[in-house]
Amino acid sequence: MTTLTFDDFAANRFETNGRDAATVGSDDSAAVRVLGTLLSYAGVSGDAGEMAARLLGRFGSLGAVLRATPGDLKRDLPTAAVAVMKATLAVHRATLRERLPERVRIDSPDALMDFLADELRYRKDEAVLGLFLDADLRLVAVEVLAVGTVDRCPLTVREVVGRCMEHQAAAMIMAHNHPSGRLSPSDIDEVMTRKLQSTLAALDIDLLEHVIVGDGVYSIMQQQVLR
């Protein structure tokens, strides 16, 4: 295994998608090299590259390894290494949050879409994320509004409105994932979006966007793939 310098390690993206990365298990795979280096720093004994390939084969991608539960990781890793995995994920998420502009704008969405995709792409269950903004479109709060099963997530318009009122939000952005990777919205997705938009408008709260995160990002309100 080729050992990366710390600068090489820091320069790699943690959210590498297993479908786009080089074949897992190859010494030339960026994902294997990055994870192997991290495991070496975490004090994993033996061949860290071999362990990295095993974890990537099991979970499917580098992002999925980092987001695995401590219980799942402990099947292969010592407690200290699991702690390093979780700390690495926390640093990565903090970095993404720093990239969110002070004034979140849909017409300049790259940092926002990165953040939403990172929060939702690797979940095995369906979840709804809410971003609440003030009158100047500054981010006030981010919340997981609901968590469901692999194909559905119960959430009512009343619950969303309640969270907007709690945060005194002037606008919000909503996102949810499809664990299957499917980007097309369901009938329920579209009906929920229309109802929420009209209800919030009556309260002078703008629903700026509702996106689906799967194998890409899709805007229900714009009816187009954003990435």
Overview of the molecule:
Strands 2-1-3-4-5-6 form a 6-stranded mixed β-sheet, with helices on both faces. The chain has helices spanning 6-11, 30-41, 48-59, 62-67, 70-73, 79-99, 110-120, 157-166, 187-202, and strands at residues 127-133, 139-147, 171-177, 206-214, 216-219, 224-225. It is elongated, with a radius of gyration of 19 Å. By secondary structure, it is an alpha+beta fold. Mean pLDDT is 79; it is low at 1-28.
**Discrete helix count:** 9
Biggest pleated sheet: 6 strands, mixed
Listing every helix as H and every strand as E from the N terminus to the C terminus, the arrangement reads HHHHHHHEEHEHEEE
Fraction of helical residues:
40-55%
- Give the averaged pLDDT, no decimals: 79
Radius of gyration: 19 Å
Percentage of residues in strands: 15-25%
Please state the overall shape, judged from the principal axes of the Cα atoms: elongated
Number of strands: 6
| Side-by-side strand order of the widest sheet | 2-1-3-4-5-6
The first-to-last residue Cα distance is 34 Å
